[in-house]
Amino acid sequence: MASLQLSVPNIVGSRFKRRPVRCAVERQDLFNRIAPVYDNLNDLLSLGQHRIWKRMAVSWSGAKPGDSVLDLCCGSGDLTFLMSEKVGSYGRVKGLDFSKEQLSIASSRQYFLSKACYNNIEWVEGDALDLPFSNGYFDAITMGYGLRNVVDKRQAMREMFRVLKPGSRVSILDFNKTTQLLTAMFQEWMIDNVVVPTATVYGLAKEYQYLKTSIKEFLTGEELEKLALEVGFSKARHYEIGGGLMGNLVATR
Ligand SMILES: C/C(=C\Cc1cc(O)c2ccccc2c1O)CCC[C@H](C)CCC[C@H](C)CCCC(C)C
Ligand SMILES: C[S@@+](CC[C@H](N)C(=O)[O-])C[C@H]1O[C@@H](n2cnc3c(N)ncnc32)[C@H](O)[C@@H]1O
């Protein structure tokens, strides 16, 4: 088990080849700020349901024992740990994120959760828009609640296509920009009347208000499928889950 230095987590060095744009720096700062409460608020505000949605995303990725896989925008590592269990000790998992604080939480969790297979995880501080990996490197990719947060969704999709092996899949879980009026109204009501008031207790109101604007600016399931096909994926299908509140795009290279 890698020795953990809590102050300096076992993260591979920064692999930024270009400076993130201002908007990306603002998002980087946002996720650094919410890192200490992120996991607990996800459990509380989704009544633990997000763990089911994440397991579905990992299953859809097609990851199997011995694979080399990537969890993009890994944050505190929820999907990274699930992918680690899926590929086992002979597999390899890279969890990439540009938030040092999120990666620090992930690295600490790896140490305290201390499952043998978690030795197969490498944490990488990097940019989803400029991945530090070779073409055709991964057997599967997951991206949980990341695509909505990157400043250039097309570039992120291009990079996922580039680093995937032919015939392999990417599984992208996020909020669903639903076209169902009642679902949209419920989603917005929950954010306004439950999520943001709860986050306010932690002094994070504006960070969680961002959820609403980011969903409004996101792509619908149909638009996500179209984007995946445009960048070169051979197949793309968006599944609505969680009563339509969430969605998962599965695309095959
Ligand atoms: C795991 C979830 C969200 C992750 C997440 C993604 C972001 O882009 C953020 C941006 C800014 C701040 C926080 C996040 C963030 O946490 C989904 C579940 C957690 C949500 C915060 C709760 C959403 C509530 C649903 C709209 C309604 C749930 C109804 C029912 C209890 C299942
Ligand atoms: C909502 S969190 C999702 C974390 C985790 N995947 C999960 O499902 O809980 C979004 C993550 O994306 C990261 N992120 C956003 N834009 C990024 C980029 N361009 N490169 C790398 N990470 C990015 C943030 O730092 C944050 O940790």
From TrEMBL:
- State a GO cellular component annotated for this protein: chloroplast
The protein's GO terms of the molecular function aspect are: 2-phytyl-1,4-naphthoquinone methyltransferase activity
Q: Which InterPro entries would you find in this protein's record?
A: MenG, SAM-dependent_MTases_sf, UbiE/COQ5_MeTrFase, UbiE/COQ5_MeTrFase_CS
Alphabetically list the UniProt keywords.
Answer: Chloroplast, Methyltransferase, Plastid, S-adenosyl-L-methionine, Transferase
For this protein, the record's SUPFAM superfamilies field holds: S-adenosyl-L-methionine-dependent methyltransferases
* Highest taxon of source: Eukaryota
Keyword set includes Chloroplast: yes
Membrane spanning residue stretches: none
Looking at the keywords, is Chloroplast present?
yes
Under catalytic activity, the entry for this protein gives: demethylphylloquinol + S-adenosyl-L-methionine = phylloquinol + S-adenosyl-L-homocysteine + H(+)
Entry's localization field? Plastid, Chloroplast
**Enzyme type, top EC level:** transferase
Q: What role does this protein play?
A: Involved in the biosynthesis of phylloquinone (vitamin K1). Methyltransferase required for the conversion of 2-phytyl-1,4-beta-naphthoquinol to phylloquinol.
Q: Which PANTHER family match?
A: 2-METHOXY-6-POLYPRENYL-1,4-BENZOQUINOL METHYLASE, MITOCHONDRIAL (PTHR43591:SF24), METHYLTRANSFERASE (PTHR43591)
This chain belongs to which protein, by name?
2-phytyl-1,4-beta-naphthoquinone methyltransferase, chloroplastic
Which gene holds the coding sequence for this protein?
Answer: MENG
